[in-house]
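re: ur question from yesterday

yeah so i grabbed the chain u mentioned. its 203 aa long if i counted rite. heres the sequnce exactly as i have it in my notes:
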Amino acid sequence: MRYLIHFVLLLSLGSAQAFANESQVIELIVFRQSNDSLQANRTAPDNWANGATRVTAEMWRSTQLDLLAKKLTPDNGYQVIMHKAWLQNNDGTTAQVAISDGHAHFQHHSIEGTLTFDLERTSSVQLDLWINQFNPDKTLHSSERFKQKTLVVNGQVTFVDHGSLGALIRIQAQQSTAQPEQIKQTDQIQTVPAPQMHLEDFE
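ran it thru and got these structure tokens back, copy pasting raw so excuse formatting
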């Protein structure tokens, strides 16, 4: 029995080490889920990236959750703000990346911010995003902040609720990334109950 326990522990350790050496594909959809905006009485800081590693052109990957994104339409009460996927190297340590979308105006974008990961079988993810509005002269007018921490089970789509804003995030090993035609409406979604969104919205 003792040898069996040692064997199981060795298998678990080997599995964790293998996962730590894998590259992960992160896919993130950020959307508005009501007509109301979060309180926006401040603007995003100029150092919004906070020293995080920028996602470069070489890291971007094709999105795979397009069927889910197509459900997030104004007719259904949603508006997609950003839909991105990128390759994230996993060396077993905490990683922080900076992402943005939209044209840059004085070093700010329509959406910008950071994601901090502890990549495991169930990953801890901290989102800190700014959704910006600009003045006619392209200076920053106001910003909504989407800051929330969540747990993401590897390979599952997780819904993050933040009032009038929401996000769908999936993390999975690079070699297991499905092709677009293989992504079906049977995607597992791990979600926290929220009045704005229900699982049947994705069926």
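noticed a couple things. The chain has two helices and ten strands. also The mean pLDDT is 80.
anyway ttyl
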